[in-house]
Design brief:
The complex is a heterodimer of chains A (618) and B (162). Chain A has 618 residues and is α/β, with parallel strands linked by helices. Chain A is built from 26 helices and 19 strands. The chains are: A alpha/beta (618), B alpha+beta (162).
């Protein structure tokens, strides 16, 4: 049972209790149990650590904590040893014994579990010294690895709800809006609308009730920062919404979360329940007179619900079809009432701004894009994971300094930024500083911050086709240009990738793209052609190779490639024969094998298993 | 308990209001792994929403299914990160091994294969989610072993005997 916090004084007393020195000094093993590390076996690691602790008789002196996502999912499960902050990566259950032994063994870290810098070969002791983290500025994600997201006390310990207390006692609602405006914060959902301007419009609305919504329908494939923040630090989002409720005069809020993120849903449920228990949600919060309730709504699997009017329809229990804007939700939103919808990271930025002040926040970033942005750096890159960096960082820094370059000595070809609404930025623009304007100029957009790195073995026609297939499926079908346009675009792209395209198709793609962009009802359709237009703009040669030479330079498009075996390299090991599901590989063991092209279904299974790399794709 | 009584019990947990429609359907989907026709009718009656609208919502959102699903739900992530790291080949392998022409349910009702757009584990691409477990770094070579893990023992033996 938690104590009700009836005033700011209560809150500070509670925080002081959470910071008891005895608590802080206790040695602690924190294991990341975000979705990524969990998939890599984090729960087995915790179980093994617990057993080893018991065997060593240390269960009462060492604490085991499960924390949220650190962002370096590739190297998971991640485990940190406190108070030293020793950072272990790729920990397995079988390592538990050695880790526990090291605790009493003069506390010498287990060398082989430390991160090894691929450039120097050196082992790195602490997380913040790992190159992946060293260049980051984690103002939103910094606490993710430090707290147990299922304990409000942990959030209080690191300074949680201090911004709310400050807003309630030192600032007026108008001042909060003014601070958000002066901070230069722009919507982190993708479009980059100035948050302060949206809030000022909402504040001017006199009709009540007013609603605020957190858009956590992170639908962009390749983006998972919202999931990570909700899983790892849900109270930071709740605190942002509480400050928003105070500033905007909203009495009710909604968190709209994708159902595909079960762990985020669970952690939010716990966070809401604990905040209610402490009196941080409900009536007369901290004795300030503010009353605010928060409801969690699970999405039902529709990408279009990330669009704000569709999201509202979905909360109201209807199909997620967007409406014409204006009227904007600020005028007529949920149940026809004034409503502000902001992205997860936008809400989580608000406590930071209130704590540190608008000038501090505005000093980070570029002239028109302030603060930090979170990117998910994935695809063909060595260090995949979540990266929080100041706006204005270049692609080069992202990919080489933080991302550690492209694996297997391959060459960078393009970076797809912003999900299906974004575009492909070619390697030639690697020194592009990343902010809202620069990306839009390059034909892409910030979007949700998904950053999929592509190397020379990624086919750009295939990528364009992939996104169009996605958008065709996810188009809600309400307006004609998007419904039919995405379908036709996908058909033309499929034709080209099958080697059946004509040069006139390129003009057709451009014309169709123009129509879909200019005439679609909502953002989904209006940005749908971006992947096509950017690939056409920067990789026209690749389209032409498919059309003129019936050749896929990246060797991806199935109809345009053949598999064969290089006789001088084949050692007759038979591994490919075992995995071939169409019996297309001929040859006895220890003799040179051949592939029967008529039978081959081009699944690539042989390529995966061939040790001497004798399988060729041409 | 019959389906109808169970549906009624689930309905009783939510307010009988139209805005609860999606939440109610999610409850039913979670319990039965699909939406039985009688459940849709019961929902329409209870929430006073036209059956056409219930059907509209049930067919619009990806998480609902009108067909019963198999014992195990295999979801192959087709997000961008998984796509560029070969999710298509993994999907093809599942289709071949489960003897399906396209995603759907196997004849013995053991598996339902679906594609999903991003489960947010992009750093571990390509990933597959089977029931509540996420399996990272899939290759087609790992597919048979993975399926075997979820197949009931006697079926594995039967197959071996074949």
């Amino acid at each position: 049972m938690r104590a009700q916090l009836k005033s700011v004084k209560d809150l500070e007393a509670q925080r002081a209790a959470c910071r008891q020195p005895a608590q802080a000094a206790k040695p602690c093993l924190s294991v990341c149990t975000g979705s990524g590390c969990s998939a890599s076996g984090a729960h087995e690691v915790i179980e093994a650590l617990r057993k080893s602790l018991e065997r060593a008789g240390l269960q009462d002196t060492v604490e085991i904590k499960s924390t949220g996502c650190h962002g370096f999912c590739e190297k998971g499960p991640l485990t940190l040893v406190w108070p030293e902050g020793v950072f272990y990566n790729r920990v397995a259950a079988r390592d538990a014994k050695e880790i526990i032994a090291s605790l009493s063994n003069g506390r010498r870290p287990v060398e082989r579990l430390l991160y090894q810098d691929p450039a120097t070969g050196n082992r790195i002791l602490r997380e913040d010294e790992v190159p992946f983290y060293a260049r980051q500025r984690r103002i939103l994600f910094g606490n993710n690895g430090k707290i147990d997201p299922k304990l409000i006390e942990d959030y209080l310990r690191v300074g949680g709800y201090a911004a709310l207390a400050r807003a309630l006692t030192e600032l007026s609602g108008e001042q909060v809006v003014d601070w958000v405006t002066r901070s230069g914060l722009r919507g982190r959902g993708g479009a980059g609308f100035p948050t302060g301007r949206k809030w000022a419009l909402m504040r001017a609305q006199t009709r009540t009730p007013k609603y605020i919504i957190c858009n956590a329908d992170e639908g962009d494939p390749g983006a998972f920062m919202d999931r990570s923040l909700l899983e790892g630090n849900p109270h930071s989002v709740l605190e942002g919404m509480l400050i928003g409720a105070f500033a905007l005069g909203a009495s009710e809020g909604y968190l709209y979360v994708r159902a595909e993120y079960p762990l985020a849903v669970e952690h939010l449920r716990v966070a809401i329940a604990q905040a209610e228990e402490c009196g941080l949600l409900g009536d007369n919060i901290l004795g300030s007179g503010l009353s605010f309730r928060l409801k969690l709504v699970q999405g039902a699997g529709a990408f279009v619900c990330g669009e704000e009017t569709a999201l509202i329809a979905s909360i109201e229990g209807r199909v997620g079809e967007p409406c014409q804007r204006p009227p904007y939700p600020v005028d007529r939103g949920l149940w026809g009432q004034p409503t502000v919808i902001n992205n997860v990271k936008t809400w989580a930025s608000v406590p930071v701004i209130v704590n540190r002040g608008p000038e501090w926040y505005a000093a980070i970033g570029t002239e028109r894009s302030k603060g930090t942005m979170v990117f998910s750096l994935v695809g063909k890159i060595n260090n995949t994971g979540l990266v929080e960096v100041p706006m204005g960082i270049t692609l080069r820094e992202m990919i080489y300094d933080i991302g550690g370059g492209i694996p297997n000595g391959k060459k960078l070809k393009a970076v797809q930024i912003g999900g299906p609404s974004g575009g492909c930025i070619p390697a030639s623009l690697i020194d592009l500083p990343i902010d809202y304007e620069a990306l839009t100029q390059a034909g892409s957009m910030m979007g949700s911050g998904g950053m999929v790195v592509m190397d020379e073995s990624t086919c750009m026609v295939d990528v364009a086709r992939y996104f169009m297939e996605f958008l065709e499926e996810e188009s809600c079908g309400k307006c004609f240009p998007c419904r039919e346009g995405t379908q036709r675009l996908r058909e033309v792209l499929a034709r080209i990738s099958q080697g059946k395209g004509a040069e006139a198709d390129l003009k057709l793609l451009e014309d169709l793209s123009w129509v879909v962009r200019e005439t679609s009802l909502c953002g989904l359709g209006q940005t749908a052609p971006n992947p096509v237009l950017t690939t056409l703009r920067y990789f026209r040669d690749e389209y032409l190779a498919h059309i003129r030479e019936r050749r896929c330079p990246a060797k991806v498009c199935k109809q345009l490639i053949t598999y064969s075996i290089e006789p001088t390299l084949c050692d007759g090991c038979h591994a490919c024969v075992h995995v071939c599901s169409s019996d297309a590989i001929l040859g006895d063991k220890d003799a040179v094998h051949t592939i029967d092209a008529a039978k081959c279904i081009k699944c690539g299974a042989c390529l995966e298993v061939c040790q001497p790399k004798a399988v060729l794709v041409t | 308990m019959s389906t109808t009584t169970e549906v009624e019990a689930l309905l009783g947990q939510r307010a009988p209001r139209a805005d609860e429609l999606i939440a109610v359907l999610q409850d039913i989907q979670e319990r039965f792994h699909y939406l039985p026709e009688e459940a849709l009718r019961a929902v329409a009656r209870r929430l006073r929403v036209p059956l056409t609208q219930v059907f509209h919502v049930a067919t619009f959102y990806n998480c609902f299914s009108l067909e019963p699903v198999g014992t195990h739900l295999v979801q192959v992530c087709m997000g961008t990160a998984c796509h560029v790291r070969g999710a298509g080949r993994v999907l093809d392998r599942f289709l071949r091994d489960l003897k399906l022409a396209e995603p759907g349910t196997t004849g013995d009702h053991e598996f339902t294969l679906r594609t999903v757009r991003c489960v947010g584990c992009c750093a571990l691409a390509p990933v597959v989610r089977v029931d509540a477990n996420t399996h990272p770094h899939l290759t087609q070579a790992k597919v048979p072993g993975l399926l075997k893990k979820y197949r009931p023992k006697e079926k594995v033996l039967e197959q071996a005997a074949d």
